[in-house]
Amino acid sequence: MHAFIRGAERALYWFIVLQVATMTAVVVLQVFNRYVMNYVFGWEEETARYLMVWSSFLAAAYALREGEQLGMEFVITRLPVVGQRVLRTVCHLLVMAFLGVVAYQGLFVMMPQQLTQVSPSLGITMAIPYAAIPVSAVMLLCVEGMLLWQEWHAKPLTPASAVPLQL
């Protein structure tokens, strides 16, 4: 199972890198066309925007798994060990409840509304860019579940700095 998780992390990492590289290339193309060629295709700005949205949302799940999300440890470190575990568990459960609501609302309320709406320059359904919200919420929910499991099985999360990602 650990090998599967590391493989999925590696694939997600490279997918995010590919998205950011593509976004960068599209922006460079847009700037070159606009200021050098004096011509605009029209699809570059929208493509770059949707790539940025997707890469940001996917990177949130990757960063959470790697232990890179913002946290306020100064409160937790002042508690006894049992209090630390209880507080972390409550936080994980609250975050999981929130992510569950976001995933449900995204999949069953927002996505059906976006199926008929079409993006102006790409001509794709707006469900594709908006799908980043429920997809990332489900991914974050899975990561939070793993963190909760690790909390109760005394297997601490090894941050990226402790175990470098094998690229």
Structure write-up:
There is one protein chain. The chain is mainly alpha-helical and 167 residues long. The chain has one domain (2-152). It is built from six helices and no strands. It has helices spanning 2-37, 44-65, 73-76, 81-114, 127-130, 132-152. The mean pLDDT is 89.
Q: What are the salient characteristics of this protein?
A:
0% strand; mainly alpha; 167 residues; elongated
Contiguous uncertain segments of 5+ residues: none
Oligomer: single chain
What value does the Rg take, in angstroms?
20 Å
Number of H- or I-type helical stretches: 6
- Arithmetic mean pLDDT: 89
Largest sheet: none
Strand content: under 5%
How many beta strands in the DSSP annotation?
0
Which range best describes the helical content: under 10%, 10-25%, 25-40%, 40-55%, 55-70% or over 70%?
A: over 70%
Question: How are helices and strands ordered from N to C?
Answer: HHHHHH
Q: Could you say which overall geometry the principal axes of the C-alpha atoms support? A: elongated
How many domain regions? Answer: 1
Measured distance between first and last alpha carbons: 19 Å
> What class would the helix/strand composition place it in?
mainly alpha
